[in-house]
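Input record, target 12 of the design panel.
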């Protein structure tokens, strides 16, 4: 027990010495530096629906494979009355895979997609959405199961632009 207390005291002393050695300006810069990027968010379906491009000046968000992209810069494609507006404000993974705007296809569900459709989905996801648009978050469905329990297959370290410290 005494050995653990001595190590803890030594650690505290080392931290105090290191912090005291930092110049005041460097400490101020570290403490008050704004985040380089806005942290990613977790979106429920109703939250994501608010970003469907219906209001001028509002961001336009589209989810594919549970990743939420800010497609506002492509408002001529995704804005109100635009050709692909049906895709926004929701996870439209199936519609993207099938290249379909049918309301029945505007869902996250990829059950029954062909190998060709799955390949098309991956190509569009990587070469269009990830290449052109910033990631602003993830759908809650990607991280949580239907019953609210954690999705054990979700691995934050495998997610693009996901940094758990930004979530806290």
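The sequence produced for target 12 reads:
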């Amino acid at each position: 027990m005494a050995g653990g207390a001595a190590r803890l005291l030594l650690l505290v002393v080392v931290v105090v010495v290191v912090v005291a050695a930092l110049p005041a300006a460097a400490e101020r810069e570290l403490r008050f530096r704004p985040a380089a990027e806005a942290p990613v968010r977790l979106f429920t379906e109703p939250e994501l629906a608010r970003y469907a491009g219906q209001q001028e000046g509002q961001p336009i968000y589209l989810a594919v494979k549970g990743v939420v992209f800010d497609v506002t810069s492509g408002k001529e494609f995704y804005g109100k009355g635009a050709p692909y507006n049906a895709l926004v404000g929701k996870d439209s993974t199936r519609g993207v895979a099938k290249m379909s705007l049918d309301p029945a296809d505007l869902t996250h569900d990829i059950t029954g997609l062909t190998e060709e459709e799955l390949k098309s989905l991956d190509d569009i996801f990587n070469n269009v959405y990830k290449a052109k648009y910033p990631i602003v978050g993830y759908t809650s469905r990607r991280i949580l199961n239907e019953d609210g329990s954690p999705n054990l297959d979700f691995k934050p370290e495998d997610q693009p632009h996901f940094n758990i410290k930004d979530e806290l």
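Residues 40 and 137 are 4 Å apart (CA to CA).
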